[in-house]
Design goal:
The protein is mainly β. It has one helix at 9-30; strands spanning 56-58, 68-71, 76-77, 80-83, 87-90, 93-95, 102-112, 115-117, 127-137, 140-142, 154-156, 165-170, 173-177, 182-185, 198-204, 207-210, 215-220, 222-223, 226-228, 231-234, 238-243, 250-252, 255-256, 262-266.
Length: 283
């Protein structure tokens, strides 16, 4: 006869609990130990409100398929100068720069979504452009003052600079500009170098507030200009001036303020190829 010895009731309960605890601990120690995770610090982000007292100067471009892109993300700089091809500059704040606030010279350059406020010195211009295949889009230029000279929102000329071709000026705001929203002069206007021609400038869907000039846009020796969909504010004598063989211009779909006497002024040399509202007087 086999006799089985049972532990007392209380001891048996403790043995069962102990065995269960031992099994749990054994299972836990059998699990693989997680490897430590290395946490790298997040990359530093430059504050969009940071200010630089240095002018941004760009002298190296990209290619037609891969332009060099400079994004300001709201950063403030003391002016922008571009002397390169295949460049995009966007999102900068240019506050009280030495004029011109932005200057672009080259081919295939896009300047967009920048803000220029109260340029000073020089001629007081907000932006100057020279070259081919240029896009000036959705910028805001404010407070160009004749205190410093002949302050235009935007200007191009061809004396010691190249003539401009295939230029799109679109969706910009020129606010509180003493002189003109755009002054465009070709190389054969009597002050240029006489080399080449300036042509194919499109001015579309801009807001232009001219405070002291006789016209909002002025073209001299610029062929094939297109002016459409713009708002001409304030009270210049007329909105668009075409002079010195600025032929083949097309003007349509603009809105002129009630205090502007007529939309287009034109001289005899610029009448060939003109399409638009009936001219109201001289340029």
């Amino acid at each position: 006869m086999t006799t089985t010895t049972r532990p007392p009731k209380g001891i048996r309960g403790r043995l069962i609990v102990g065995a269960a605890l031992l099994a749990t601990l054994t299972a836990a120690t059998a699990q693989p130990v997680p490897r430590p995770v290395s946490l790298s610090p997040a990359p530093a982000v430059r504050s969009a409100s940071s200010r630089s007292s240095v002018r941004l100067v760009i002298t190296e471009g990209g290619t037609a398929g891969h332009p060099a892109v400079h994004r300001g993300n709201g950063r403030t700089v003391d002016g922008i100068t571009i002397e390169a091809d295949h460049v995009v500059v966007e999102g900068y704040t240019v506050h009280t720069p030495r004029a011109p606030g932005i200057e672009m010279t080259g081919n295939d350059i896009t300047v967009r979504n920048n803000t220029v406020t109260r340029p000073h010195g020089g001629d007081g211009d907000g932006l100057r452009f020279f070259g081919d295949d240029l896009k000036i889009q959705h910028n805001t230029i404010t407070g160009a003052s004749n205190r410093y000279g002949h302050a235009d929102c935007m200007q191009t000329f061809a004396s010691d600079t190249p003539p401009s071709h295939h230029v799109l000026i679109e969706g910009n705001r020129c606010e509180r500009i003493d002189n003109m929203c755009l002054m465009a002069e070709g190389p054969n206007d009597g002050e240029g170098d006489g080399r080449g021609h300036t042509y194919d400038i499109t001015v579309r869907d801009n807001y232009c507030e001219t405070l002291k000039a006789s016209q909002t846009l002025m073209f001299e020796d610029v062929q094939h200009a297109t002016v459409t969909g713009n708002v001409f504010a304030a009270s210049p004598d007329h909105a668009v001036g075409l002079a010195i063989h600025s032929t083949d211009a097309h003007v349509s779909g603009n809105r002129a303020g009630s205090r502007i006497r007529y939309e287009v002024g034109i001289d005899r040399s610029s009448r060939p190829g003109y399409r638009g509202p009936r001219p109201g007087g001289a340029p």
